[in-house]
Amino acid sequence: MRTWLSDHVKDRLSTFGLIVPSIAQCAVGAALAWVIARELLGHPQPFFAPISVLICVGIGLGQRLRRVVELVVGVSLGVGVGDLLVSWIGSGPWQIALVVALAMTIAGLLDSGALFVAQAGSSAVLVATLVPGAGAGGLDRMLDALTGGLIGIAAVALLPASPFAIAAKHLSGVLDALSTVLERAAEAIEKRDVDLAAEALEEARGTQAAVEEFEQALETSKEITMISPLHWHRRARLARYETAAQPVDLALRNARVLSRRTLASLGEASPPPAALAEAMREVSEAALLLQLELGAGREPTLAQQALLAVAARERPEQLGFSAHVIIAQLRSVVVDLLQATGMEHAEATAALTPLDDKAGRE
């Protein structure tokens, strides 16, 4: 229990470290938007300016540039339409219904994105219910929202989270999952343990969420390097993560098939040999080595060498059907991880020990 609690605290602190820049962006951006709207634009109560900053920046890691733009325009549209209508027709239940319907209709005609439409509607609700007749014109509040949105984008550019920390953390989760699946499958084969094989399969089935989180984090990281001058000169480092993204996803898909067949193989007359478990464990270690090298900003040469050593190994003889399938999937995982290190598919495939020649000697 104590170990679990300690690991949980460490994980939460690590995650919090990633969102600290977003918190700073919100805090600094909100204050700056208020000052600009009040002092430079002359708006006495420009509360939509800091609100727009918070909406556009948020504290999530999944922000995308298109999403930020949708939020900025959606807020501005909702505020403008809502405030102009409320100044004419007043505030009340039917007025709220009309304002929301009109704002969302205009937003839907401009852009079918659900976020854009919803943001326009929610901003119109704020105007119609919280600030009717507050003395400021609709165009002023629209300008406040636009100001806050632009400040939010500037805050992301000038106070950015580390794109490499974001990508490294989420790729680490993917490669950890892959390593765990292979390790448990190897242990199941060594111990002839069906329960361990079932655990490996269950672990493998739950890995897609980690892949999707990594893909989203990678998009966030790419956008940070695109809009932030502080990271323009370091795009090459992030390119290693882009290279690894699809091959690692494929490796996990192949690992799912491998773990499913591992469970089936333990019920056969000739279960997989221990040598196959050893190869699984070596690939598992190579995945962790890839994680460490990418995290350190190095070319993953050591991981590549470890994978090439596994690829060149002769396959065991006298195998059952399931063991043949396991070997085929493990070879696919090796090719996928070699591609994640930057190797071309043809070169990675050529590194494998040919099956035909071996089959001819059997």
Q: How far is the first residue's CA from the last residue's CA?
A: 52 Å
Structural class: mainly alpha
Radius of gyration: 27 Å
Mean pLDDT: 80
Number of separate helices: 15
Shape: elongated
- Count of the separate structural domains: 2
Q: Any idea what the CATH architecture of the largest domain is?
A: Up-down Bundle
Strand content: under 5%
The major beta sheet can be summarized as: none
Q: Unreliable runs, pLDDT <50, ≥5 residues?
A: 357-362
Overview of this protein structure:
This protein is mainly alpha-helical and 362 residues long. It folds into 2 domains: 139 residues, no CATH class; 199 residues, Methane Monooxygenase Hydroxylase, Chain G, domain 1. The protein is 80% helix and 0% strand. Helix 7 packs antiparallel against helix 8. The longest helix has 39 residues. The C terminus is likely disordered.
Key features?
disordered C terminus, Memb_transporter_dom, elongated, Methane Monooxygenase Hydroxylase, Chain G, domain 1, single chain, mainly alpha, 2 domains, 362 residues
How would you summarize this macromolecular structure in one to three sentences?
By secondary structure, this protein is mostly helical. It is built from 15 helices and no strands. The chain folds into two domains: about 20-160, no CATH class; about 165-360, Methane Monooxygenase Hydroxylase, Chain G, domain 1 (Up-down Bundle), CATH 1.20.58.
